[in-house]
Amino acid sequence: MTISKALTIAGSDSGGGAGIQADLKTFQELGAYGMSAITAVTAQNTLGVHGVYPVNIEGIVQQIDAIGDDLGTDALKTGMLFSGEVIEAVSERIHHYGWDNIVVDPVMIAKGGAKLLQDEAVRALKEKLIPLTSVITPNIPEAEVLTEMKITSLNDRKEAAKHLMDMGAKAVVIKGGHADDKEVIDLFFDGTTCEELVSPRIETLHTHGTGCTFSAAITAQLAIGMTMRDAVLTAKEFIRAAIEDEIGIGAGHGPTNHWAYNKRGEK
């Protein structure tokens, strides 16, 4: 029996809706054995983040080496990498082990608009990590920071995707949730195919962890051997189900439903 393995290098969310908790749930639901290297511990729930406690560089590297020296991985994703030093260390270890199927969720802009990465970290992301990337999955504000361009139209998104490809990414998904469109239009570009992935906009408060979950779904699908396009399409269906079939827990912005995709298949 062949076991497909997926690694997440990201922060921990004590509320379970985002970060490594969302990633591991998603890996499990989509048939990949999940592993993690934690970059920071957060105290958070549906009402917000109440504390952030970074793991030191040595601790992050040792976690990655523990995976690389024994288990290995078929795909990995990065989430919250909060400093240039962390980004450089993670990039070096990815290069050291020769890993591919690298999914980068560039967690840079908080939902309230706060910038989560300093300028030196953005530079490290562009110079060190993006050139190793199989697919990068920014939302529109994150794509604006990375490309240093204003994105107000679908054509702008296409231009931004080309810029990200020029930085070294092999494929790009620019998520459309932040746009004012009546539907959500995610743009997929791999240098050959430029495809608009359209889905209904769902009115709900329970969207915590959508970016983490979407990128984790891509990672799991790449780990089990799917093509990039098919991995992205499955991830789109996975996150749509997770948002639509809400579980409604917590007093604030609740988590998505990581069971939904497979439970729909059981009906």
UniProtKB/TrEMBL annotation:
It comes from the Bacteria. Its EC number is 2.7.1.49, 2.7.4.7. InterPro entries: HMP/HMP-P_kinase_dom (IPR004399), PM/HMP-P_kinase-1 (IPR013749), Ribokinase-like (IPR029056). It catalyses: 4-amino-2-methyl-5-(phosphooxymethyl)pyrimidine + ATP = 4-amino-2-methyl-5-(diphosphooxymethyl)pyrimidine + ADP; 4-amino-5-hydroxymethyl-2-methylpyrimidine + ATP = 4-amino-2-methyl-5-(phosphooxymethyl)pyrimidine + ADP + H(+). It holds the Pfam family Phos_pyr_kin. It is an enzyme of class 2 (transferase). Belongs to the ThiD family. This is Hydroxymethylpyrimidine/phosphomethylpyrimidine kinase. It comes from Rossellomorea aquimaris.
